[in-house]
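Q: what sequence does this backbone want?
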């Protein structure tokens, strides 16, 4: 039974990946607004109903790594180096990801697609903020704070929103560092 379940799960994961890859390729080639979900299903050689079993809508096809991103961000807090503050762990994680997106042509093309498509940009922002609860919980756990700690919730929210602010700057990694410096040292230092 385990082998069957394992094979079934692998097949589902493979179908999901095939759909996400087809969608990304088509969106980059033709533009997001010029591709329908039927086009993606045909390119992946699956039925439309199969596509909707794996993805709730067209926007979700673009963001197939959502769970992995959340897990990595939480791991950055939980698995930080001894002596490294939670604040610095989050900052370093976000800066590293932003730096990678600036140097990897595939990631840069993906970001260009999202940023040039209003529906995707808005969806990406909403999705990104969904990680706030998990990040706040990881921060609270790492700092031995209560689960509903206001400071942990505030840091999680600021950290996630900082990527949006920094993303519009000429040098996003530098902007992220400046925003986290502001958070660490306060507004009074900038006056």
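A:
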């Amino acid at each position: 039974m385990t082998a069957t379940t394992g094979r079934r799960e692998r097949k589902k994961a493979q179908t999901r990946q095939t759909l996400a890859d087809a969608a990304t390729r088509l969106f980059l080639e033709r533009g997001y607004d010029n591709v329908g979900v039927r086009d993606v299903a045909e390119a992946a050689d699956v039925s439309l109903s199969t596509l909707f079993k794996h993805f709730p809508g067209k926007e979700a096809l673009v963001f197939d790594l959502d769970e992995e991103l959340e897990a990595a961000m939480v791991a950055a807090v939980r698995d930080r180096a001894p002596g490294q503050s939670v604040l610095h762990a989050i900052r370093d994680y976000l800066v590293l990801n932003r730096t990678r997106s600036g140097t990897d042509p595939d990631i840069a093309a993906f970001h260009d697609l999202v940023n040039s498509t209003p529906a995707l940009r808005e969806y990406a922002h909403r999705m990104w903020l969904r990680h706030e609860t998990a990040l706040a919980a990881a921060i609270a756990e790492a700092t031995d704070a209560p689960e509903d700690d206001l400071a942990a919730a505030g840091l999680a929210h600021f950290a996630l929103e900082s990527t949006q602010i920094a993303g519009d700057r000429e040098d996003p990694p530098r902007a992220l560092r400046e925003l986290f410096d502001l958070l660490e040292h306060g507004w009074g230092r900038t006056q």
